[in-house]
Amino acid sequence: MNAIESLFFGRERIMRDIVQGVLAPQPSSFSLVGSKLCGKSKIIRYLASELGPFHSHQMTDWRPSFFEDAGRLITILIDCDYQDAQENLLLHVYTVLVQQLQEKERIELTWREIEAQPGMGRRLWTVARELKEMDYRLILLFDNFDSVFERQLISMDAVDELRPLTMELGMVVATEQPLHDLDRDLAASPLFNVMTQVFIGLIEPEAAINWLDVYAETYPMISKMKEPLLAITGAHPFLLRRIDDILLEIEQMFPQNNVENEEGLADEILPFIRLRLAEHGRLLFATLWRKVQAPPPPVKGDIVLKLLNRLIDSPLAISQIGREHFSTANWLINQAILRVSADGYQIFSPLFSEFIRSKVGVAENPSTPFVTLMPHAGEADIYKRLTKIESALLRYFEAHSHKVVSAEQLLTDVWKRPDASTRRVQEAIRRLRLQLEEDDAPYGVIENDRGRGYRFVPA
Question: How many CB atoms lie within 10 A of CB 302?
Answer without folding.
Answer: 11
